[in-house]
Amino acid sequence: MAVIVAVVVALSVVWQLGRFQPIDARPTKEVVWEHLERAYHNHEDLREGEKKVAKLGKPATPILLEVLEDSNQSRYWGRASVVLRLIGDEAAVEPLIALFENTEGDLDDERFAPMRGFHATMATIAAKGSDKALQYLIDNAKPEIWLNKKFKWTYLGFRGESPYLTRFREDNFVYREICALALTGHPRAVQALGEIRKYAGNEMWQLWASKAIEAAKEKSLESREAYLNQMWREEPLSPPWFWVVLVSVAAAVLFVWTGWWQLRRFRRRRDLPSQPSTN
Questions:
Q1: What is the mean pLDDT of each run of 10 residues along the chain (279 residues)?
Q2: Which of 269, 123, 106 is nearest to 193 (CA)?
Q3: What is the residue extent of each domain of the chain?
Q4: How large is the greatest C-alpha to C-alpha distance in the chain, in angstroms?
Q5: What's the CA gap between 156 and 158, in Å, rounded?
């Protein structure tokens, strides 16, 4: 009888403990959605939520990809893409590329979030050993590819050959491609950066590539990322001709002002009454 009572008590205790199991012991899909919800609604818990989902590792990848495939869940796209970056699963590479290149329509900030972070995601996954991600970045290492790329999506209403959109592509996609190559730290990526540094079309890209090659020499992914962040804060990223034009305009303004001032002085002296002779 005592044995039966002990077994019943033990089963009751196990059942009660099961009701209060920690959150990370729940089914993976439930964990992923709970943390994405928490990260979306509570920005103070944003990074912590992303890290908790990332700790689940590769089993979370299919669930996160389902989020990116569902346009009704676009508010979570940015968070899901960041978590995929942290996990570094090569299985996410092709779906992420498809999302970036095949999404259609005019995107708002939430749907644009994975596009904005696309290069960083590819670079991080490549740095964690993905040949597919690395090859994509190398295949698209030429700046003119991004300038001539015809996206199926637009961002906040900018369509066609909008000067803003063209400048956005040049100042962002080319820069992000260069930084992504550096972030991988791979010798093949450094070789691609060397080709960009020789590029004669834009001195700004040459400057970025030179800095990126230095960043790629850092040993760890974190140190390369820190180097690039420091480069962004310190480097004005303006080509030499910008300063030439600025100095030229300033010199022209100074020349015109000096000439006007001298002319005004001459006219005042001319209009003064002549002094009578004392002889």
A1: 59 48 50 72 62 81 90 86 91 94 85 88 94 94 80 65 47 82 94 84 80 91 86 54 65 80 72 54
A2: 123
A3: 24-87, 100-240
A4: 147
A5: 6
